[in-house]
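REVIEWER CHECKLIST
Item 1: Sequence provided? yes
Item 2: Single chain? yes
Item 3: Sequence as submitted:
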Amino acid sequence: MNHLQDVPLAKAYLLLNHGPSTLVTSEHDGVANVMAAAWVMPLDFDPPKLMLVLDRNTWSRHLVEGSGAFVIQLPSRRQAELTLTVGSNNGGEMDKFARFDIAQGRARKIAAPIVEGCLAYLECKVIAEPHNQDKYDLFIAEVVAAYADERAFSNGRWHFPDDELRTIHYQAGGAFFATGEAFQVSRG
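Item 4: Structure as written out by the authors:
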């Protein structure tokens, strides 16, 4: 956690715009959960907002609706097995943090745990949109804190120093791919 640096909120979207898999943590009435989520995207710059699809049958949805907050985390390649594990188990049936011995800390501005060792964190407060939530399972949230591992994200850009510090993308059936090499093009 000592490599974390703040990301200006107006630039928080840069943490998500390459489409990585995420972990979502939430807590309500002293009960916490972590789940994997692939459908997270930036929505706005100022104030920064994002959208999260959170199926009504998930335990996390119950916690998010109760607390009005959650944390989006970007796991690294070395956390792919953890991502698959938490995405394949129901938090309503077990304490995933205890069962899978997940190292955790606390979010800075909201009441929720964070998974230690992730590459980036976006702490979010839900903007109530009952129609979207009920009909489409779509949650809109304001990002109230953003921070990232400076070894992989600094000066507003991702730069992956080694294969283990790359974000991941989930396909299906346990298959992931790691974010590839960055390259620059000039406008013509």
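Item 5: Key structural point noted by reviewer: The radius of gyration is 16 Å.
Item 6: Recommendation: ____
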